[in-house]
Design a protein that fits this description.
Number of strands: 14
Radius of gyration: 30 Å
Shape: globular
Helix content: 40-55%
Largest sheet: 5 strands, antiparallel
Structural class: alpha+beta
Number of helices: 18
Length: 463
């Protein structure tokens, strides 16, 4: 087309930066120069189109061949060894909770079970674990890595696993404290392992272990001191002194399920053992909330508006050209995650509730854009408030009188609302009576979860 080197560089820059106005000007220059050198006009236009398409994303053949080979290898590994492949991928992305959550969703899609972190079963990295069913068939699962728990450190977890492999599984929290090196563990590490559920094989009460982290570390330091002085215990084992008292953590109730999941998400970066919205299943049905996994199907079927509910897992906010603020809110439910766009009016009204970990419900406008679905928030409210608005009732079965005072205190703290509360105390063997409390109460899934951990409360269910 007769370009000079400088002119060709201007063409390259316009293509690389995809400057539309400049590209149109360059097309005219190119076609005119090419036709002046005997190239048919339609052929010159075709060549320019090919260059323009290639400029969008192109590289040399050796680069493409290397990508193709690696793509084939990874596809073959995933197809033939999906459990090992995903475990390796999770280890690679251990420090990136967003990618880790994506791998977790892929494992769920493929029917691969991801087992929780466990000081008696996990390695520092993600690992494949063989499991045998009752009928004798063997399956593979992925065991969550200890080092993937936030702020615990890879080296410290390697040493913890080494102590377990050298001395056998930890028999109790006392045994754990006696055998780990306190120089490699601090209070935050023990607390985060407890929040993530890594001590459940030793003590299922996560709240008690978290609260007792300092006591566990003091015991570990004392045991290390005994080992350093070569003190011989009652049965001749160094560090197992006869006068070392057993480790006794303070007796306290465990966190309610929603609080357990919140603590777990804080320690891991996402919900692993369950999802907070599981407790709202009946509420979501009554509110006609669309599961995120079915959002695309409903949108393609013609739905213009959808109610979506989820836990906030991320927010991105910026200023628009007009000076107003807008945000993209990522939410997750038990079926998946999606992003909702909030413009200034909704954002100004709802910003305080759109913090990570909060459960919210959006009324969203839906737009299908090719294969993607775009969601724009028209309204937003806390899911707890939406749950209270439907007036769901509770039936509370009581096996001991000691439950009455904390039950009354909890109801009074929640206050009046639209829900009916029925108390069913045991009056004798095989005998019970139903008592409907006067007035209406602020009934919600969070209240139900809090009631379940009161000593003496036997069962809580929706009325």
């Amino acid at each position: 087309a007769g370009y000079s080197l400088g002119g060709a560089d201007l063409l390259r820059r316009a293509m690389g930066k995809k400057i539309r106005s400049e590209m149109q000007a360059q097309r005219a220059i190119f076609v005119e120069g090419a036709t002046g050198r005997g190239i048919p006009e339609d052929k010159a236009g075709e060549i320019f189109d090919m260059m323009e398409r290639f400029a969008e994303y192109g590289f040399n053949k050796s680069h493409a061949a290397a990508y193709a080979l690696i793509s084939y290898q990874t596809a073959w590994l995933k197809a033939n060894y999906p459990v090992a492949f995903l475990a390796a991928s999770m280890t690679l992305d251990m420090a990136n909770t967003d990618k880790l959550a994506s791998h977790l969703a892929e494992a769920a899609r493929l029917g691969i079970k991801v087992l929780p972190p466990d000081v008696n079963a996990s390695d520092a990295e993600f690992a494949v674990e063989e499991r045998e069913a009752e009928d004798g068939t063997k399956t593979q699962a992925i065991r969550f890595a200890l080092a993937a728990v936030k702020r615990v450190g890879f080296g410290a977890m390697q040493d913890l696993v080494k102590a377990r492999k050298e001395g056998g599984p930890f028999k109790s929290l006392s045994d754990f404290a006696d055998r780990v090196d306190p120089k490699l563990l601090n209070k935050m590490q023990v607390e985060n392992l407890a929040r993530a559920g890594a001590f459940e094989s030793l003590d299922p009460n996560r709240a008690r272990v978290t609260e007792g982290a300092e006591l566990i570390l003091r015991r570990a330091q004392a045991a290390a001191g005994d080992r350093g002085s070569a003190q011989i215990g009652l049965f001749g084992a160094p560090g197992a002194s006869a006068d070392t008292p057993p480790l006794r953590l303070r007796d306290m109730p465990d966190w309610p399920q929603l609080d357990r999941l919140s603590q777990e998400a804080e320690a891991i970066g996402f919900h692993l053992s369950a999802h907070p919205l599981d407790a709202y299943r009946e509420v979501l049905r009554k509110l006609n909330v669309c599961p995120i996994a079915k959002m695309t199907e409903r949108a393609q079927a013609g739905a213009a508006r959808l109610r979506l509910a989820g836990t906030v897992i991320g927010t991105k906010e910026r200023t628009t050209k007009t000076g107003s603020r807008m945000a993209w809110i990522r939410i997750s439910d038990a079926s998946g995650s999606t992003e909702v766009t909030c413009f200034s009016e909704v954002l100004g009204k709802c910003r305080e509730m759109l913090t990570e970990g909060n459960a919210v419900m959006f009324s969203s406008e839906v737009r299908v854009d090719g294969e993607a679905v775009r969601l724009t928030a028209m309204d937003c409210e806390p899911l707890e408030r939406a749950a209270q608005s439907i007036g769901q009732g509770l039936r509370i079965e009581i096996a001991a009188m000691e439950a009455l005072d904390p039950l009354r205190n909890l109801l009074e703290r929640e206050g009046k609302g639209r829900g009916e509360v029925i108390i069913i105390p045991r009056t004798g063997p095989g005998q019970e009576v139903e008592l409907t409390l006067p007035g209406r109460w602020n009934v919600s899934p969070r209240l139900a979860q809090a009631l379940k951990v009161i000593p003496g409360v036997e069962a809580v269910e929706a009325a």
